[in-house]
Write the structure tokens for this entry.
Amino acid sequence: MHYIGLKHLNFNMRAVYLFIGICIVLGCEKDDNVRRNPNLLNINVDYEVNLNLPQFNNLNFSGNSVYIPGQGNLGLIVVNSGSSYLAWDAADPNLTPRDCSRLIIDGLNAESNCDGEPNSYSLITGQPLEEDLRFPLFAYRVTESGGVLRIFN
């Protein structure tokens, strides 16, 4: 029968804790680094949507979305996915902002059409629907409280 000394056990536990600590530090990336996109400006957004107002009534039903001008780069697109609310910047993330790069809602997708070929994105995942597009939609955080959505970054 082998006896493991307390010193040896203590060293192994330290190694395990050190390994876990390093994994946590390296696994955590600042949110700003993940969201960096050279085509879009980092514009501060803090906007409230009252779901009781008529212009936002569609958001009370699953699968609907609403365009909100005057926020973000070229406005916001807010979506009721059925399980949560999502908010995206309405600027095509693969183009520099201009009039034609504003995304137009088409069901649960959105597209821009600047150069003849439309860029299409899913409003549920934010991912491009074409393979050659580098950036997904720019997402904003959404919280809901008492029938009011707060959209912010």
The CA atoms of residues 7 and 13 lie 10 Å apart.
